[in-house]
Amino acid sequence: MRSLIDILSLSLDEIDELIAVAEDIIANPVKYRDKCRYKKLATLFFEPSTRTRLSFEAAMYELGGQVLGFSEANSSSAAKGESVADTARTVSCYADIIAMRHPKEGAPLVASMASSVPIINAGDGGHNHPTQTLTDLLTIKREKGRLDNMTVGFCGDLKFGRTVHSLIEALSRYTGIEFVLISPEELTLPGYLKKGILSHDGMKYTETTNLEEVMPKLDILYMTRVQRERFFNEEDYLRLKDSYILTPEKLQNAKPDLAILHPLPRVNEIHTSVDSDPRACYFRQVLNGKFIRMALILKLLEVE
Amino acid sequence: MHIDSIKNGVVIDHIKAGKSMEIYYHLELDKLDCTVAIIKNVHSKKMGSKDIIKIDSDMQVDLDVLGYIDSDITVNIIKDGVLCEKKKLTLPEQIKDVIKCKNPRCITTTEQDLPHVFKLTDPATKTYRCIYCEAKAK
Ligand SMILES: [Zn+2]
Fold first, then answer.
1. How many A from CA of B116 to the centre of ligand 1?
2. Of A71, A95, A234, B52, which has fewest CB within 10 angstroms of its CB?
3. Nearest CA in chain B to A83
4. Which residue of B has its CA nearest to A126?
5. What is the pLDDT of residues A108-167, one digit of tens each?
């Protein structure tokens, strides 16, 4: 029995396999619609995240399975002070697999140590969110046909953006990846990631504050939100916020086969007029999230 | 100054000067009934000055704790008044309930019964990280 707590615990072969299964599900959905018949997924969401929860639930229903669970802590036993370990032990008597979201870092690992069924980390605070990273990888693979040899730009809040950190870690394991880090000086990528990952032999990266300047070289543009509360003062925020909003004008010099990703929800960092551009992938990305979760559930349940 | 030599027990030597009290509490020597001598600022050719702890009991010393605090420490086991074993210390792969995770967002802050476990992630820099939240040990 295996759980998925951290994206780096999956080997590149395992990620390839998950992506291959997801692509097969997309091509042959009928083949998979009864694969998890009589199986149950429990979604234990100790903090609300409607998108992630619905994605897991839709994935299980599309495999012919059933879903039970709760969507916030105050409707659960946690509100009565039950430990994560006890909750996991109890729920593993009812369900065949558990997707858990928790505000505290490491809670899904604690659950996996106590549970008798696989645990999927559906986000633990600002720490890990491996199914988001798998979603991003599947999207890049489907849009570009490969996961190596490309220039990937990350734009916006690179300091606190957990999805950015995980995707950089995951992509750095492939060959020929060049990173372009686009952010205000206040929100650059943390030093430990630059030292720990980007300083390795053969890794290429550049840092800039100017999105338009680097746009022509990008194969992937991963957008994130620049939040007001990340700035010390209002003036800096107002001065900088527009530089990191994607508009059709900023895309003028972009490659014709650029792929624009965003983990969603978006607020205003991608102008809605970009949505109709064929290079905008973020809604296809949502759909990919369901398919990769289907592939992951099959793998962890060892369903052939 | 004269301190009785021990017949059966443990001598923890080559402790960095000033570190002996930290070790005293980590090894829970305060809970022992036997004689424990803490000798501070002993002149040492190799180290300038050092601390020594002598324990008059053939207790099992937690070598992982000592290895984590300072792997240059030496542990001598004394039997019948003679040195019978010198233990070599290494950096432990994992330490449990020696240090606490200080990350306020870590699950250990809300679940008090969880053991505080740290894993050695980089031997070159002696970096330990919390197994739950991966925060660096400080
Ligand atoms: Zn921790």
1. 8
2. A234
3. B111
4. B105
5. 999 999 999 999 999 999 899 999 999 999 999 999 999 999 999 999 999 988 899 999
Which single residue is written with the structure tokens 């002993």? B42
CATH among 3.30.43.10, 3.30.70.140, 3.40.50.300, 3.90.226.10 for B9-88: 3.30.70.140
CA A149 to chain centre: 21
How many domains is chain A built from? 2
Q: How far is A90 from chain B (nearest CA, A)?
A: 17
Verify whether the Cβ–Cβ distance B105 to A110 is below 8 Å: no
Going by pLDDT thresholds of 50, 70 and 90, the confidence category of residue B58 is confident
Of the residues B127, B133, B134, the best mutation for testing chain A's interface (the one with the most A CB atoms within 10 Å of its CB) is: B133
